[in-house]
Structures are given as structure tokens and as C-alpha cells.
Design brief:
This protein is an alpha/beta fold. 42% of the residues lie in helices and 12% in strands. The chain has 13 helices and 9 strands. The strands form 3 sheets. The protein has a 5-stranded parallel sheet with strand order 2-3-4-1-5, sandwiched between helices. A hairpin with a 2-residue loop joins strand 6 and strand 7. Helix 9 packs across helix 10, helix 10 packs parallel to helix 12 and helix 11 packs across helix 12. The termini are far apart.
Length: 387
Amino acid sequence: MYREFYGLLRSPFEMTPDPAFLHLGETHREGLATLVYGVRSRKGFVLLTGEVGTGKTTLLHSLLAQLDENTASAYIFNPTLEPLDFFRVLFDELDVKTPCRSKAEYLLALNHYLIDRLQKNQSALLIIDEAQNLASETLEEIRLFSNVETSTSKLIQILLFGQPELDDKLDSHALRQLRQRISVRWSLGAMSSAETGEYVRHRLSIAAGYESRFFSDAALREVHRRTRGVPRLVNMLCDRSLLAGYAAGARQVSVDIVRGVAKEMSGSPQRWRDIPRWVPAVAVLSILWVLLVGAFAWVQWGPSDPSQHVESDSWGQRDIAAPHPRVVDPLPPVASSPPVEPAEAAVYFDETVSFDAAEPFEEPLLFIVEPADPAVAISAADAGEPG
């Protein structure tokens, strides 16, 4: 849709690994050199790992393009197979016509096939993509292929391509024999910011037939920041950015267009990577400053001893920690009377006081002992049961 608008002869960011658009960064060049060295030197097992979208399949097709006609290759891209099915696919890729029904027959037929090729100075190559999905039993079967050898060289070269999970699987104790037989290995990384810009410009120049600045420098830096230099993500973001530029009528894709497309592809209006890098640092410093000021204020003006806290009331200030004194009305003065004998004294009880033995007294009872008056005094027997 945007090809005519920008004058492009073909789509520059297709997802298929087209050799015409091949542009290798430093890590990809070293990875391809490692693969070629392992195959030509007959090292047996060669391992290449990398994250999703970093260009493992592109390197694989680049390797196949460099093989001569004397090298027979079997490319297995779906390794989730049973052992016998794996042998059937292998024989079909190598064009081995010998009919087999058991694993032993497959191994014997493969041995004869490889020895015959060695006598003709020809080699065989087995490439397994997505090898992290292989079962441990299948990996052990593949290890047995390396036993097919002569005293001087391996009869078949085995290349394992996979994600970093393959390294974790090979580090297990059960596969230690296979791990020891891998003589050449390489971990594929992403592109740097400069390599991302070169990658985009290269593909656009191939698609247009000439060099032109379809992306501004700031837009290319934004492409790398959003994709972290992963080639597959770079292709997706650049393709959508060209489409957005065509819709906006922009002859050159700007950083704002790339940023808007990236936000749309992420599926959220705001992500952490959209926030400027200085914002989190300022937020952390602000929180620390508030905590520091609060601690200083507490030390300076906060109560030093909670027991001395003073509260104001309508009568002024009083110490709320001290117990409230209980006000007791003074007893009326008692007129002096002549002394009496203890036996003639009478006991007066306050009839309003309840004598419930089940509840403890909250306040002490006050008993008044006065000299007996024949007019009003009562005896203990007339007052009922004594307390």
C-alpha cells in the first residue's frame, strides 16, 4: 500500500528470510563464521542459541546457501516427533530409499549411507531447528548418531538451533554425555543501535534500488529503543511505521510516528519504557526527601515522653496521665458524747447499698459507729443479719 507512495520496488520488511535482504551485524557475522567452521572442520556437534526473533533462521538459510553440492543436508524444523518418525523424516530429507521398519534397521541403513558418501568425499549435515522442544529421549538418540564415525572424521555433522532453554536442558545431568560432545557453540545476541540503523537503511535501499533517508536519525534511534535490536521486531515496527507515514502523508518517518506506532502495537497507552528515564529517579528522591523531613519534624517537635502529654480542657491544662482525685464530701462534725462501752454501741447500715456477694465492691463502704441512743438505736438482732 505504501510502496508507491515511497517509490519502493518491493516490500522491505517482509518476515520471510529473503537472502536478497541479508545484512549481518557483528554478532550475526561471528555466528555464521562459527557455523561454517564447524561444518567444514567436521566437528560433529555444533550448537547455536538465541532469543526469539534474533535471526537464527536467517543464519541457517545463509549457511545452507554456502554449502556446495557435495554436502547433503537434512533440515528438520519440527522436532516434536517420536524416534521412528524422526528417522522417517531424516531419511526423506537425505533421500535415502532403503525401507526400514525398526530403529535398528534405520541405524544400519544410515551407517551404510554415510560410509558410501565418505568414500565419495561427500559429507552429510543434519540441522535441527527449535531443538529446545526435543524430548530428552530424542536428544539421546541424536547423540548416538555421533558414534557413526571413522578413526579420522565424523560421518555426519549435527547442528542444533534453539532458544536459550536448550542450554538449560543440555546442562542437566541426564544429557551430560551430549553436552560433552558439543565442540562448537555460539550464543546469538541482538543488534546495537548503530547496527539497527544500518539494518533498516540496508533493507530500504534494496527495496527502493537507491539509498534514501526514509527514516530520520531520531526515528531510527527510537526503533532500536523500542525493539532492543531484535530483527523480527525491527521489521514489524518499521513496516507499520511506513504505513502510518503514508496515512499521514509524511515523506520521512519521524520519531513521533514511530513512538505512536510502538504504543499502538504494545496494546497499552502508556508503558514504563515510554516514561523518560529521569522520572523514576526524581520520584524516588522526592519520597526520600519527604521521609527525611518527616523524621526531622518528629525529632524536633514530637512528644519526647508520652507519659507527660498534657491535654487542655475547659479548666485549663491538666495532666491526663495522672489519676483523677476523687472528691469526697467531708463528714459533718460529730457532737462529743460521753464514752460508752463497746457492747452498748450500735451499728447503722446504709440501706441503699446492695450487698451482692457475686460482685466485688468498686468503692469501700463507709460505716459510722455512734453511741447508742435509746430512742433511735436498734440492736443487732432487730437489724436483721449482720453484714
